[in-house]
Specification:
seven-stranded mixed β-sheet, four-stranded antiparallel β-sheet, 1 helix, globular
């Protein structure tokens, strides 16, 4: 059974930091890429970052570039999203998702068209107060 489990969300003041984790099981971790997405109330889902687990190629959306860092630990089947300098507009439910690298990058960058990620976690909420 495929599982993606996010953790690490919570309540933080503006300027603070959080580290989200996405622990995967049930599929060959190194053959896949992991994307982080977020959805704020009343807004569309946004792809913010992704990483290929085999060679750690990364992508960051402009909205998080320079503040968020994604990393992958194949020994733990876990991808991390370290978030610094959090802003109230970062408030959202954060989801991780997995798919083959080419599709992950297309979907995360908003160029996936009709395609979506194969596997999804249930999400972890992040609230940033001003």
């Amino acid at each position: 059974e495929v599982q993606l489990v996010e953790s690490g969300g919570g309540l933080v003041q503006a300027g603070g930091s959080l580290r989200l984790s996405c622990t995967a099981s049930g599929f060959p971790f190194d053959d896949y890429a992991i994307g982080w997405f977020r959805q704020a109330p009343g807004k569309e889902r946004e792809g913010i970052s992704c990483i290929t687990n085999m060679d750690s190629t990364t992508y960051y959306a402009d909205s998080v570039k320079g503040r968020f860092t994604i990393s992958s630990d194949s020994a733990k089947n876990t991808v991390y999203l370290q978030m610094y300098g959090l802003k109230p507009e970062d408030t959202a439910v954060y989801y991780c998702a997995a798919d083959i690298p080419s599709k992950t990058f297309l979907v995360t960058t908003g160029r996936g068209g009709k395609y979506d990620m194969e596997f999804w976690g249930k999400g972890t909420p992040v609230t940033v107060t001003s």
